[in-house]
Design goal:
Length: 363
C-alpha cells in the first residue's frame, strides 16, 4: 500500500509547542527559542488586515493570490508570472520537488542544512547528495564537484539554517559562474530581511535579473511574524513558476494569510526596527553561549545562533526543557552534537542565559 520511498522516510520534526511542555512538566512559563520564529508578532497593519478578513471566512480564498503576487512582483521588479507562492518557503520547496524531480534524479545540498530539501527529494524517489559544510558554511566547490548528469536542483541556503552563516559574495559569484546549465539553483533566502552584513547578496537582483538559472526563496514566516499563517514565495523563471502552480493545491493559501502578507509589504521602517533589535538580541545569545563555554558559529547573520556542545545535544535540550526553555537539538538537521537558539525578546534571552548557566553548573 505505501510506497517504499514514503515508508522509509523520516519526517520533519517540528519543535515542541509551548502548551505541550507546560502540560507535561507543570510549568507556569515556557519560552520557545527553537523554531526561528519572529518574537514580535505580525506587523500592526497585518493585524488590522486580519481583523477585517474574519467576516470572509465563509468564502474560499483567491486560488491564484492575484493581489499578493502583483505586490511581490512590484517589490522585486519582476513579472507576476515569475512569483510562485506556497505554504511558507517550505511549501514552495515541496511543490518544486514534485514538479521537477523523478525517481533517480538527484539534488545537491550542504549538510547540515534545512531538512526539507532532503525529505522532499526522497518523497518522490530522488537521491539527495549531502555535502559537509566547511567552517560552518557551504563548501560550494565540493557541491559543484558533486553535480552529475542526473542533478536537477542545487540548494544553497543563504544564510544557512541551522548554522546562521553565509558564504561571501565572491564565493557565490564564483559558484554561479561554474554551475552547469542543466542545474536549477535554489537560493533559499528565508532569513534575508534579518541580514545586515555588508557582503550580503540579494539573489533576485544579482543573479535572477542577470539571467542566471535560479529560484530565490523568501518567506513571511520570520521577520514579518506570520509563521502561523504559512505563506512564502519563490521568484524565478516563468516556466518553473508555472510548474509549481500546477502541483500546488488550489486553496493552500488561505485568505487571512494573503491579506496579512499583503498588508506587511512596504513598511521599511518596521523592518529596520526589527532588524536592529534582532542584531542586538543575537549578540546577547552569543554572549550567553560563550559564557557557558560553547563556541557559536560566526559570523551569525540571521535570527538564530548555532553552537557545538561536544556531545549528544539532546541531553542539554532536555535539561533546559525542565527549566522551561525550548531550544533546538539538531540531529534531524544532520548535526547531533549541536544546538540552535532562536533570538527572542531581551527578557526571553535573559531567561535562557540564566537557565544555561544553571544547567552547566549542575553538570
Amino acid at each position: 500500500m505505501i510506497r517504499p520511498e514514503v515508508a522509509e522516510l523520516a519526517p520533519y520534526e517540528p519543535g515542541k509547542p509551548v502548551e505541550e511542555v507546560q502540560r507535561e512538566l507543570g510549568l507556569d512559563r515556557v519560552i520557545k527559542l527553537a523554531s526561528n520564529e519572529g518574537p514580535l508578532g505580525p506587523f500592526p497593519a497585518a493585524l488590522e488586515a486580519l481583523a477585517r478578513s474574519v467576516a470572509e471566512l465563509n468564502r474560499y480564498p483567491d486560488g491564484g493570490a492575484y493581489r499578493l503576487r502583483e505586490a511581490v512582483a512590484a517589490r522585486h521588479g519582476v513579472r507576476r508570472e515569475q512569483v510562485a507562492l506556497g505554504a511558507g518557503a517550505d511549501g514552495v520547496i515541496d511543490c518544486l520537488s514534485q514538479a521537477t524531480l523523478a525517481a533517480g534524479d538527484e539534488i545537491v545540498c550542504g549538510w547540515p542544512s534545512f531538512p526539507s530539501y532532503v525529505i522532499d527529494a526522497r518523497k518522490v524517489g530522488a537521491l539527495p547528495r549531502t555535502i559537509p559544510l566547511r567552517d560552518d558554511r557551504h563548501d560550494l566547490d565540493a557541491m559543484l564537484a558533486a553535480v552529475g548528469p542526473r542533478t536537477k536542483l542545487v540548494y544553497v541556503c543563504y544564510p544557512n539554517n541551522p548554522t546562521g552563516t553565509m558564504n561571501t559574495r565572491a564565493e557565490l559569484d564564483g559558484y554561479f559562474e561554474r554551475v552547469p546549465p542543466h542545474v536549477l539553483t535554489v537560493l533559499d533566502q528565508a532569513y534575508f530581511e534579518y541580514v545586515d552584513h555588508p557582503d550580503s547578496v540579494d539573489g533576485i537582483e544579482r543573479y535572477l535579473d542577470a539571467g542566471r538559472r535560479v529560484l530565490v526563496l523568501r518567506t513571511f514566516s520570520k521577520i514579518f511574524g506570520l509563521a502561523g499563517l504559512r505563506i512564502g514565495y519563490g521568484v524565478g523563471d516563468e516556466e518553473v513558476v508555472a510548474a509549481i502552480g500546477k502541483v500546488r493545491r488550489a486553496f493552500d493559501l488561505n485568505h487571512q494569510a494573503q491579506a496579512a502578507a499583503l498588508a506587511s509589504l512596504g513598511d521599511e521602517e518596521e523592518l529596520a526596527r526589527r532588524r536592529q533589535a534582532n542584531a542586538a538580541g543575537r549578540e546577547a545569545v552569543e554572549r550567553a553561549l560563550v559564557a557557558a563555554g560553547y563556541r557559536p558559529a560566526t559570523p551569525a547573520v540571521a535570527n538564530f545562533v548555532y553552537a557545538e556542545v561536544g556531545e549528544d545535544a539532546k541531553a542539554l535540550f532536555e535539561a533546559l526543557l525542565r527549566l522551561g526553555v525550548i531550544i533546538r537539538p539538531l540531529a534531524s538537521f544532520g548535526a547531533p552534537t549541536a544546538i540552535r537558539v532562536t533570538v527572542g525578546t531581551p527578557d526571553e534571552i535573559e531567561v535562557f542565559a540564566s537557565a544555561l548557566l544553571q544547567v552547566r553548573a549542575e553538570a
